[in-house]
Design brief:
Blueprint (H helix, E strand, L loop, with lengths): L19 H17 L26 E5 L5 E3 L2 E2 L5 H8 L7 E5 L5 H13 L5 E3 L5
């Protein structure tokens, strides 16, 4: 007896692609990249920096403090004033030694810049730099 099988969707074998391992791998890679990424802290203000002929690149793990043309000392988009520099840096240096980079507007008086540098050094910083623009 020759029996023929008729085609019906019920007889077709189901082949599904299991996406669970792929999703797991994607999440593991996402966690890896988030954990290993170094976040750069921005000062949060626009400045007109002084120009310099020679400059070196900024360290990614540095503490960046800005001094605006109106004399405000800014860290993390907040005005901390010159009196807030020393406690801020002491708190940030508890975990590891990091350099301080001061981004001062070109119209900032020298005595204010020197006062911020002195406060940073009094907090125990070994390296203080002034950020500039290259021509």
């Amino acid at each position: 007896m020759n029996r023929r099988r008729l085609y019906s969707p019920a007889n077709e074998s189901q082949t599904d692609i299991n996406l669970s391992p792929l999703i797991d791998v994607v999440f593991i890679l996402l966690i890896f990249f988030v954990v290993t990424t170094v976040f750069v802290e921005e000062t949060g203000v626009e400045l007109s920096k002084p120009k310099a002929l020679f400059a070196s690149p900024l360290d990614k793990g540095s503490i960046q403090i800005a001094i605006t043309s109106s004399g405000e000392v800014i860290f993390g988009a907040r005005n901390i004033g010159t009196s807030g520099v020393r406690p801020l840096i002491r708190r940030l240096l508890r975990t590891e030694q990091r350099p301080v980079i001061i981004q001062a507007d070109r119209s900032v008086p020298a005595h204010l810049l020197v006062k911020v540098i002195d406060e940073a050094q009094a907090a125990g910083v070994t390296s203080v730099s002034v950020s500039t623009e290259t021509p």
